[in-house]
Each structure stands twice: as structure tokens, then as C-alpha cells.
Design brief:
Elements: E1 21-26, H1 33-42, H2 48-61, E2 63-69, H3 71-87, E3 93-98
Antiparallel strand pairs: 1-2, 1-3
Helix pairs in contact: 1-2
């Protein structure tokens, strides 16, 4: 009588979290504070009180991180911000940086 030995192969799959990217909004001398708050609320989904705090931080410090997202979402939010700013005649600028 023959005996079979079964070897189970364990496949170890490591699920990695996707890299996050910081979206940084920059201060300028033309974009209004109200518009920055509007962008933070509408595009970055910040509650009004937080949008005002972030806007003041940007105004006083030159820039601020407004969110951390996977690359595609970060780029989409930057593009939406730039498009809305241009439509309204503002030079508002956001950049991206790996977290």
C-alpha cells in the first residue's frame, strides 16, 4: 500500500498600503481668502471652521498641507483646484510631495 504525502505550499502575500502624497496649497497675493476657503470646503471636503484655520495658516506661513491621498486622487484634487482657480481668475497653486 502506497502512502501519499501532500505538501501544502504557503503563499505569503503581503498587501502593501499605497503610498500617500501630500497636497500642498501655496499662498499668493491675488487669490482671495474666501476663494481658498471655498476650495478647501468643496474640493478637499474640509468643514468650514477647519477650512478657515487652514486658509489662515497658508496666509501666515506661505503654504500648508491640505490633505494626504493616493497619487491619482491627489493629482485629481490638484487639477480640480487649478481649473476652478483659473475659471475664477486666480493663480492659486497646489503642489504634490511624497509623504
Amino acid at each position: 500500500m502506497a502512502t501519499r504525502t501532500s505538501k501544502r505550499t504557503k503563499i505569503s502575500e503581503e498587501i502593501k498600503e499605497p503610498k500617500l502624497y501630500k497636497v500642498i496649497m501655496h499662498n499668493d497675493d491675488i487669490t482671495t481668502m474666501d476663494f481658498v476657503v471655498k476650495v478647501l470646503i468643496e474640493i478637499f471636503n474640509k468643514p468650514p471652521y477647519e477650512a478657515i484655520e487652514i486658509m489662515l495658516f497658508i496666509h501666515n506661513n506661505g503654504q500648508a498641507i491640505v490633505g494626504k491621498y493616493i497619487f491619482d486622487i491627489a493629482m485629481t484634487k490638484i487639477e480640480e483646484t487649478h481649473n476652478l482657480a483659473r475659471e475664477n481668475g486666480f493663480p492659486l497653486k497646489c503642489t504634490i510631495e511624497e509623504d
